[in-house]
Write a structure and sequence with these properties.
Strand order of the largest sheet: 7-6-5-8-9
Number of helices: 11
Strand content: 5-15%
Bound molecules: aspartic acid
Order of helices and strands: HEHEHEHEHEHEEHEHHEHH
Structural class: alpha/beta
Helix content: 25-40%
Shape: globular
Radius of gyration: 20 Å
Largest sheet: 5 strands, parallel
């Protein structure tokens, strides 16, 4: 089987200059054209994944290690499916079964992974910055699958892809310029919020963030977003409502009065959604606390909720990232 024709546009440089980075550690620092390049690359895989025959041989012979030091359901599965659909040999390493439990240092784990000569390593870790530490010690590309409260770049990218395709499908202008996006919830602990803020502001969207005072990071304005504590005000006329999970595993002490009170002030209900633009779409990275940050009748609202589309886009986006980051190893013309 031959590789499908990649989508090309004149908005980014040719070959490796389109995405000159060895790793994908975060969205912060990426240029708009680099983000758009990855989104465009993912489009072909969305169509490919909708066909009955999904196996491609693009990464055949390559080994990818998914090293997950923190729990994950959808991200791990999504990266595993992405690698396998592209024909790579994919190996999953769970921290619970690894020497990490026996006290191995992160550096030793990195050196061990490196010695296995894998062609890409996908890492999730509970500590912000841990993925960069490993990336500095290995010879192959590293993809950050979420590090602490820092970044979750493929989530930011798949969310942007989901938004762009939803605009296109509804016959709207698919540019991010001027698009109003409200991100609401536990912003303080959310790497998803950070990657989305970087991604959407870089692409020109107007981003509002909304959280109770205890869950709003200090100095968030520096990320070119407008902070709100009043959810109704933050929703006014917004085109996209992105809800975040309350990350209780990262909370020491009490950050919210009670889940009931939290829902009352910050939960996305049908009544609240009516404050947004008439056709505003709803997103959530999952896993959801139904009845806390989002009501079931909103999460499942046909035509407005993009939550399952986000999961679908995740596989295509990760296929694109694995393809692009391994082009040097594969000696793809223009990428050596
Ligand atoms: N799945 C996302 C993450 O890993 C969001 C969440 O857990 O709430 O960050």
């Amino acid at each position: 089987m031959t590789s499908p024709e990649p989508t090309r546009a004149s908005r980014y440089p040719a070959g490796a200059a389109a995405f000159p980075h060895r790793h994908l550690l975060g969205i912060a620092g990426l240029a708009p054209h680099e983000i758009l390049f990855l989104l465009d690359e993912a489009e072909q895989w969305v169509e490919h994944n909708r066909q009955p025959h999904k196996r491609h041989d693009l990464l055949s012979g390559l080994t990818i290690i998914n090293a997950f030091f923190e729990n994950s359901t959808r991200t791990l599965l999504s990266f595993e499916i992405a690698g396998k659909r592209l024909g790579a040999d994919v190996v999953n390493m769970h921290a619970a079964q690894s020497s990490v439990k026996k006290g191995e240092t992160l550096i030793d784990t990195a050196l061990t992974l490196n010695a296995m000569r894998s062609d890409a390593i996908v890492i999730r870790h509970a500590s912000s910055g841990a993925v960069r530490l490993i990336a500095d010690k290995v010879d192959c590309p590293v993809l950050n699958a979420g590090d602490g409260q820092h970044e979750h770049p493929t989530q930011g990218l798949l969310d942007a892809l989901t938004i762009r395709r939803s605009l296109r499908e509804r016959g709207k202008n698919e540019e991010f310029n001027g698009l109003k996006v409200t991100i609401c919830g536990d912003v303080l602990h959310s790497r998803v919020a950070r990657s989305n803020i970087h991604c959407l502001t870089t692409l020109g969207a107007e981003v509002r963030v909304c959280a109770p005072p205890a869950l709003m990071p200090e100095g968030i304005e520096q990320l070119k977003v407008t902070p709100f504590h009043d959810f109704d005000a933050a929703l006014d006329g917004t085109d996209v409502v992105m809800m975040l999970r309350l990350q209780s595993e990262r909370m020491q002490g009490s950050f919210i009065p009670s889940p009931r009170e939290y829902r009352h002030l910050y939960g996305l209900t049908l009544d609240r959604l009516a404050k947004a633009a008439p056709d505003a779409v709803v997103m959530h990275p999952g896993p959801m606390n139904r009845g806390v940050e989002i009501d079931s009748n909103v999460a499942d609202l046909a035509g407005r909720s993009l939550i399952t589309t986000q999961v679908e886009m995740g596989v295509a986006m990760r296929m694109a990232c694995l393809d692009v980051l391994t082009r040097r190893t594969r000696n793809v013309e223009g990428w050596q």
